[in-house]
Design goal:
InterPro entries: DUF7522. The protein is α+β, with helices and mostly antiparallel strands. The chain has a single domain, classed as 2-Layer Sandwich (Beta-Lactamase). It is 35% helix and 27% strand. The protein contains four helices and five strands, in the order αββααβββα. The protein has helices at 7-21, 51-58, 61-68, 110-122, and strands at residues 25-31, 36-41, 79-83, 86-93, 96-103. A five-stranded antiparallel sheet has the order 2-1-5-4-3, with helices on both faces. A hairpin with a 2-residue loop joins strand 4 and strand 5 (96-103). The longest helix is centred in the first third of the chain and has 15 residues, at 7-21. The chain is globular and about 40 Å long.
């Protein structure tokens, strides 16, 4: 499998997520409309986790963004999915995005997480 991001870009994205989320970061995945790449997986987690299923779902964001367009709510910022033991936060910028999985943490911190990831996605390599 060919890497979708350079080592430098990987380090920058992982650093942004780790800084915002800390030790509660479980995983970080980069994706485009067609492909995905796991950038980070915490060492205590199963390497055989079914990332493909999550990536396929989160890549639907590109269709969602076209469907929502600009609404009375403003522009899309990020998506949070809540689970019993943690969260998935998805951020999309243009034709690329990331999603991070986390342990349970205060939901109010996700704006900071999304801002850090969006800023990193929008930056030049």
């Amino acid at each position: 499998m060919t890497a979708l991001v350079t080592d430098e870009r990987r380090e920058t994205l992982v650093s942004a997520a780790r800084t915002a989320i800390g030790d509660d970061l479980r995983s970080l995945v980069y994706f485009t409309p067609e492909e995905w790449e796991r950038l980070y997986l915490r060492s205590d987690l199963d390497r055989d986790a079914d990332v493909e299923r999550f990536a396929a779902n989160e890549r639907l964001a590109f269709a969602d963004l076209r469907a929502y367009g600009t609404s009375e709510l403003g522009t899309y910022q990020f998506t949070i999915r809540a689970f019993t033991d943690g969260y998935v936060v998805r951020v999309v910028d243009g034709e690329e995005g990331t999603f991070a999985t986390t342990d349970a943490m205060p939901i109010t911190l996700f704006e900071e997480v999304a801002t850090a990831l969006r800023r990193t996605l929008a930056s030049e390599e």
